[in-house]
Structures are given as C-alpha cells and as structure tokens.
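Please go through the sequence and fold tokens given here and tell me how the chain folds. Record follows.
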Amino acid sequence: MNPESSSAFLFDLDGVLIDSEREYTRIWRAIAEKFTPAKDEKDFALAIKGQTLSLILDTYFPGDELQQKVTAMLDELEQEMRYELLPGADRLLTELEKREIPRVLVTSSNDKKMAHLREELPGFEKRFNHIVTADMITHSKPDPEGYLLGASLVGVAPEKCYVVEDSVQGATAGHNARATVIAVDTTVGRDKLKGIADIVISTLDEIDLDRLSEIHNQ
C-alpha cells in the first residue's frame, strides 16, 4: 500500500495531537471525588479515556440532576484549559498536507469542546479534510463507528487507513475498524497497547511515512 495515493490518517485528538490528557485526568479525578461514580473503578480517569461524554454520564452518573451537575463542572474546568500541540504533531500534519494524504480528526469531544479548541488553536481544524465529533455518532469507542465514518468521508477503505490513538478504547476502535493502528504510549503505557496496536510509538516524530509504505509493501 502506498500511503501517498491510497490511504488516509484518522487521528484521535486528546493525548495524540494536543497536550490535554494530564489536565483531563486531573479534571475527571476531581469530578469523581465530588460525585462518586456508580461503578467502582480503580482509576476512573483512565477507565473512561476515549469515551464520549454521553456514555460516561449514562454509565457512571445516572439521573438527570446528577448529570447536569457533572456536566456543569466539566464545562467550567474545560474552559480553563489551554491546548498546545504535542511533539511531532505539526510536522506530521504538514507532511501529510504536502503529500495530499487525507486527514480526518475523530474525537470523542463534543461541539462545545471543539468551540473552545478553535479559540485556543485558530486554524487547527482547517488542517483536516473532515472532523468527526461525539455529536455525529451513536456508539462510543471501542465501537469502530467513528473511524468507519471518518474513512467513508474521505472515500478510503478502513483497512487502508492509519488510526493514530493513545487509549486502549481508541486503539480497540481502530482495530475493530480493520485499520492499521499506531498508538502513542504516553497516556496508558506501552504494555496496555501491545496486542491491540500494530505499531506503538512514544511521539508522533517517530512516524515515517516512507517507512510505513515500505512495511505495507513487504
């Protein structure tokens, strides 16, 4: 497979392209401390990574009143977040743009979060051919719906796509979509991603498009 002519890159957002995972871990731990989740998780903040807000609320915070309180706290804390690109993100996106390789952002974030992202990183969304948000899908990761939609939007077969993820749920979604999964190990660690991801890296700087083409042509 030649990445320059027949593939697409489908990117998760948090922990892959922008440096937000540490902040979200802090935020969700604070929410869990204030509003005890219905399910007992050893590390709640890690357990929910990659899931949509609606799934998190329905699974861990049942009831309209509780969900409204959790959402209000999350909205308040999210508005204080500052987003910066992670190492290698700008280089990789620039190289993909130059080679005219389709790029799709597939994120569990909702439209309100994306509006804040636009304020923090003007022009960032324009670097993608399409964006799939939580408001556009029915099933959260590890369901492959988001990645299958992303692939269809650029007209590339899922098995010819590269999914770039950092969570177990996200990597599993990419695997379930039959894509080649490249996982960044900074969020959950390399051991948890082995066996799910096809390639595990530490930063996006390790992605070599020419090398990917060689591997798929072997």
